[in-house]
Specification:
This is LacI family transcriptional regulator. Strand 1, helix 5 and strand 2 form a beta-alpha-beta unit. The longest helix is centred in the C-terminal third of the chain and has 17 residues. By secondary structure, the chain is α/β, with parallel strands linked by helices. The chain starts with 6 loop residues before the first helix and ends in an 8-residue tail after the last strand. The strands form 3 sheets. Strands 2-1-3-4-5-11 form a 6-stranded parallel β-sheet, with helices on both faces. The protein has a 4-stranded parallel β-sheet with strand order 7-6-8-9, with helices on both faces. It has 12 helices and 12 strands. It folds into 3 domains: 44 residues, lambda repressor-like DNA-binding domains (434 Repressor (Amino-terminal Domain), Orthogonal Bundle); 135 residues, 3-Layer(aba) Sandwich (Rossmann fold); 138 residues, Rossmann fold, CATH 3.40.50.2300.
Length: 339
């Protein structure tokens, strides 16, 4: 059985001290360029693999970042993780992913797992069912760098990266108004999550801007799911003064709305308009294709990593609470283009 090559083995091969090998491998400024070159060449020839555990004990860093996502079912979160992982690998970090399954209990287990793994920092997107945020507060109190992405909570004063949900919702609602729809409804998400309260705010602001009276009957409280989209359509079509279009809080809700409208043989977009929020991959491949708001997922992931990397680098120093807000883009497709 092949034994693992150590720093001492490389030192013996070159006839130098193990400490010199260690410093050469970490590009210590006191070691000459020629020595570094010789050491790295021998390390590669002998197939040396650094002991990450020993390295983390010496440096006090594991080079691990914990990423907590609500669900792996939405391509949105996979795309954000892609952005995080790209930059993490460039900076020598590995990413540990935990899925909360939209559960407060699993979310708390995820945080405990990250703390147990001694991650250098945590990136988290809040579960839709979380109402007690003490586990996030606990991370702050333990002085572990933490930042939110997408789903945030300003009351905790934890730095975050998100899209401008208010602006995105305004743009989505405005596009329906400009397409000629007048009775525009909204299927919302859980209101303890800031992103979803901001989307209602943007929806209302667009109606006001175009002198369309707000009607509370045109709000259906959903739970960001296909089923919520279906039930929302059922509710709106049972109103005495029916809705003509839906701005859905996210694309899976919009997909549910489209499925229900199709089963009822209601023509989209000529009889009824639909727009979502996210720009999930499936949207351009369904019929009719889904109008939506692009949340800049990869950019969000990259910004989230940049933020946590900065917080890790400044650990122990007093850092200001930051909110990094990305600008959304309107994507107009078939589902809202009224002829």
């Amino acid at each position: 059985m092949k034994t693992k090559v150590t720093i001492s083995d490389i030192a013996k091969e070159l006839g130098i001290a193990p400490a010199t090998v260690s410093r050469a491998l970490t590009d210590h400024p006191e070691i000459s360029a020629s020595t570094k070159k010789k050491v790295k060449a021998v390390a590669e020839r002998m197939d040396y693999r650094p002991n990450k555990m020993a390295s983390s004990l010496r440096s006090g860093k594991t080079k691990l970042i914990g990423v907590l996502i609500p669900t792996a079912e939405h391509l949105f979160f996979g795309s954000v993780i892609h952005g995080i992982s790209n930059l993490a690998s460039q900076h020598g970090y590995d990413v540990l992913i935990y899925q909360s399954n939209e559960s407060e209990e699993f979310e708390k287990k995820g945080i405990d797992t990250f703390i147990g793994a001694r991650v250098d920092g945590i990136l988290a997107s809040i579960s839709k069912n979380t109402t007690d945020f003490s586990h996030f507060q606990s991370v702050k109190e333990k002085n572990i760098p933490i930042a939110f992405f997408d789903r945030t909570n300003d009351d905790l004063e934890i730095s975050s990266v998100c899209i401008d949900d208010y602006l995105g919702a305004f743009m989505a609602t405005e596009s329906l108004i400009k397409s000629g729809y007048k009775r525009i409804s909204h299927i919302s998400g859980p209101q303890h999550i800031k992103a979803f309260t901001e989307r209602i705010r943007g929806y209302k602001a667009a109606l006001e801007q175009y002198n369309i009276p707000f009607d509370n009957n045109l709000i259906y409280n959903g739970d960001i799911s296909i089923e919520a989209g279906r039930k929302g359509v059922q509710y709106f079509l049972n109103l005495e003064n029916k809705a003509e279009a839906i701005f859905a809080v996210e694309d899976f809700t919009a997909l549910g709305a489209l499925k229900e409208l199709k089963e009822r043989e209601i023509q989209v977009p000529n009889e009824f308009g639909v727009i979502g929020f996210c720009n999930d991959l499936f949207g351009e491949h369904i019929t009719p294709s889904l109008s939506t708001v692009d949340q800049k997922t990869v950019q969000m992931g990259e910004e989230a990593f940049n933020l946590i990397y900065e917080l890790i680098s400044k650990k122990g120093e007093k850092t200001n609470y930051q909110k990094r807000i990305l600008t959304p883009t309107l994507i107009t497709r078939e589902s809202s283009k009224k002829n």
